[in-house]
Amino acid sequence: MDDYPLLNAFLTMLWLFLWILWFFLLFRIITDLLRDDSLGGWAKTGWMVFVIALPFLGVFVYVIARGSGMGRRDAAQAKQQNEAFQAYVREAAGTNRQATGVEELSRLAQLKSNGDISAEEFEVAKRKLLA
């Protein structure tokens, strides 16, 4: 271990970290390219060739030219996934189904008989339901 000083170990770890960071950025850009609906197939192919053939220049030009849209596309995808998840939860829980008038009236009558709502509240809710 005497022939490999601590500073060299630190620099090796730094270069390794930067190398891994570079690949994360490269994969992030490729993912953004493939996910973008506004680009056609030829434009995506051109960007991919540019990013892969000249990686440093390609990545820097992509981030400068299209970097602001990356965040918007990520937010839109996250919103879309959240809406799909919420729809799945509603469908799985059965809350998507609309209650019929008869079911709603029976629920109101049950609440009235349990003493949870008063007779006046029952009448008001019944009038709203039947209107």
Descriptive report:
The chain is mainly α and 131 residues long. Helix content is 82%, strand content 0%. The chain is built from five helices and no strands. Helix 1 packs antiparallel against helix 2 and helix 2 (41-53) packs across helix 3 (55-93). The termini are far apart. The mean pLDDT is 86.
Topology, please?
Layout (H helix, E strand, L loop, with lengths): L5 H30 L5 H13 L1 H39 L7 H14 L4 H12 L1
Helix pairs in contact: 1-2, 1-3, 2-3, 4-5
Structure, briefly:
82% of the residues lie in helices and 0% in strands. By secondary structure, the protein is mostly helical.
Order of helices and strands: HHHHH
Q: Please report the distance between the alpha carbons of the first and last residues.
A: 87 Å
Cα gyration radius (Å): 30 Å
Name the overall outline: elongated
Mean of residue pLDDT values: 86
- How many helices? The count is 5
Low-confidence stretches: none
Instruction: Quickly give the structural class.
Output: mainly alpha
- Main sheet: strands, sense, barrel: none
Helical percent range?
over 70%
Beta-strand portion reads under 5%
Number of strands: 0
Task: From the structure above, extract its key features.
131 residues, mainly alpha, 5 helices
